[in-house]
Amino acid sequence: MTVLWGKCTNIKRCKEAKRRQNIPIPVGSAFVCPQCGKTLQEEGAEFTKAASAKRSLKPLTALIVVIAIPLVFLVTGFAGIATWGNLRHATAADTNIAQKSILRLAGSNTIGESLAPALAEAFLKAQGAANVQILPGAKPEEKIVQGVLPGDNVASAIKIAAHGSATAFTSLADSSCDIGMASRRIKPDEVAKLVQMGDMTSAGDEHVLGLDGIAVVVNASNPLSELRKDQIKRIFTGEVTDWSQIGNAHGQIDIYARDDKSGTYDTFKNLVLAGAPLASSAHRFEDSNALSEAVSSDPNSIGFIGLPFVHTAKAIAVSEKGTSALRPTRLTVATEDYSLSRRLYLYTPAIAPTKFTQKFVEFALSKQGQDVVAANGFVAQNVEREKQAVSATAPEDYKTLTRNADRLSLDFRFQAGESEQDNKAQADLDRIVALIADRGASDTIMLFGFADSTGAPDVNQALSLDRAKVIENQLIQRGIKPAVVKGFGSALPVASNDTDEGREKNRRVEIWIKK
Asked: Of 487, 421, 420, 484, nearest to 451 (Cα)?
């Protein structure tokens, strides 16, 4: 195998450095320590047996080679010339692989599979880098994105390790990454372990990268079109084992699920399983694409996967108590009305580990970065106007006001019993202002607040109006005056009020625009 040899000099923080051993690095891979990610000190190289011998020649050996060359020519003829030329070419090429690591991302496979490499590639190009390319890492779930930044003579590398959302926080804790990627929100125990790095639930450390819907998928030949969330739970816990038990064709149900490190599994476990164990018969996957392919090849299958990985499987509509069945679409996920919608996160320490950390996050959240999010199959946060059918059960005022109006592709959500927006709100407000500014100020802006069903109806009515007024004040500060601000209490739930997650989705403010 073609390798370079190097030593790690990060003595204070790296076990490899303390061992003082030479480390083999395959040519074409990042010339960095596999333990800490720091650039290695080159100790020599081995290209092929012939190249290795050539690189290690001493002056006397070199003289022997010079004498031997005519003899080689006599024996091998012009083939000798070709061999020597290839040897020189390999050596010259291998001198161009010098590389420095400028940023390390670790965590979610959902983000790290294709979105993070695409963002890293676009980010380096936006910084003016040349020769940008995405390279395989040491393992299938790892990638290196590199390019030569202006003024540099070596490549700058962004390393991506996508081994599951849980590893985002363990990697931040042991300083083996600069940005954590998670397809679920950080847990309280993880917040506590990272407290020395700041408050990971604050707007400065927790960044919503985009939105995704966990699609419940079946084989394309399956006639099933929708399931209730309680039915999905009974299937994945093993209570329902045959398709005939839910009114479908006969056949044993084959369950496919992500592994325990996956943020997709963690979200599914919380939203659907609700504390019940996954069926022991489930086939587990670290890789999202592999799970999708397995469902597509098994007529009796059912699984769950992020939206970009549905491929040739079939996503079904999902309903829960008191709501209509919804498919995971751009609008239902963007507004987070789809019951299995989720947010994708980037987490950063309060004190940025490198000068590129904050730059990368700002790029990812910008319009250009969000275009990359959309191009990779996820739901971007760039605001769009969408047509939406209004439920027949909606209040009459709501039906009248929304007639011939468009809904914006986002909602504002709130904490229980409060009128304070979450971390996503500030960036969303600026995105709304940008959309309205692009279209002119002639449109009528309408804000509709909603509450969950906890508490007395009059209290919920007042709270829903207070939430709408909070957004009104924020828009007025940005130069936009809404024409209609109204609260509808606990009407029109988009999720079940029997769960914390459902109640959180129901505490919202919708934004509608009419010409």
From this structure: 487
417 Cβ contact partners less than 8 Å away, ≥ 6 residues apart: 454, 455, 463
Distance CA 271, CA 185 (A): 13
Q: How far apart are CA 449 and CA 444, in angstroms?
A: 17
E-only strand ranges, 108-154: 130-136, 142-148
Strands 385-386 and 406-413: antiparallel
Calpha distance 255→161 (Å, rounded) = 27
Q: Strand 142-148 vs strand 130-136: parallel, antiparallel, or unpaired? A: antiparallel
Contacts of 69 (CB under 8 A, 6+ apart): 80, 84
- Could you state, in chain order, the average pLDDT of each consecutive group of 10 residues for the chain (515 residues)? 65 61 67 75 43 36 38 35 32 50 96 96 98 94 97 96 96 97 96 96 94 95 93 97 86 95 90 93 94 96 94 94 88 91 95 94 96 94 91 94 95 72 82 80 87 94 95 92 96 89 90 91
Looking at 3.30.1330.60, 3.40.190.10, 3.40.710.10, 3.40.50.300, the CATH number of the domain 383-514 comes to 3.30.1330.60
DSSP state letter for 95: T
Q: What are the structure tokens assigned to 345, written together?
A: 């996160």
pTM, rounded to two decimals: 0.71
Measure CA of the first residue to CA of the last residue in the chain; give whole Å: 66
At 149-202, the pLDDT tens digits run 999 999 999 999 999 999 999 999 999 999 999 999 999 999 999 999 999 999
Contacts of 339 (CB under 8 A, 6+ apart): 229, 271, 318, 319, 320, 323, 326, 494, 495, 496, 502, 505
Both tokens of 362, joined, read 């700002």
Query: Does CATH number 3.40.190.10 belong to domain 100-208+345-373?
Result: yes
Same fold, 211-334 and 383-514: no
